[in-house]
Amino acid sequence: MEDLEQDGLDIPSGLDSSFHGGPPTDPPNNFEDDDIDDLINNVRQHDPMGTLEEKEADIRGLTKAWVTERMSPTLLPTKETLLFRILRRVQMQIEVIEEKSIDMSPDTDVKLELLIVETELERIKYLIRSYLRVRLLKIDNAMEYYQSSPLDRMNMSQTERMYLTRHYALLKNLYAHQFMNTFPESLKQMNDSSGSVSMVQEPNMDHPVFVRVVKDTGRKIIIGNDSVKLRKGSIVVIKYSIILKYVESGDVEFI
Tell me: domain 2-141, CATH 3.90.1570, correct? Predict the structure, then answer.
């Protein structure tokens, strides 16, 4: 993600403070859905990075990554490459909007058209911010765990790993100056797990999740004395640890 910052691709932070809500989707009443799609696609066509189908597939991929990341208690592999492509396109589309804003006549409906396109861009930027925000929240909530788990750190982008390292160092230094220096040497470790209660907060692998079966595999999941059959289209509430391998294989997806 450092390359994104160096290229000046920032995301304004004033849209929404919560990542649990959905992105804005309501169009103006005097426009049909087809008209809005045509306007958005017209701006997208000015973007040389990929075909229209590829751009739409990237937006669907971002939306799926956002939903999946929110549902999963663990940090999933980063979608940094996908984010980079989408951010570059957003930047190009903003430039097109600025050019049209300069050339437009006050007697036309260009302002309204540009407003609709800007709303679409805000929706995309909302998804990006929300996706990144939920990942940082997971890092904050289990910082000691990720700091001591090289395998899980492989799922992070370079910027996220830098954030983890620096934030952990600041937190450790703060604790040391505030109170830990007064503790006996045996109690100064922040990652002590020798007692009955571990100081390392790990992701809750038994967290219940909602999943939809997308492949009719006919597999049965045994849970104690009960079993669940994975039928295509069915929706199941189940522990994350039990369903994880089916999510990774693509048999089910989070909803």
Answer: no
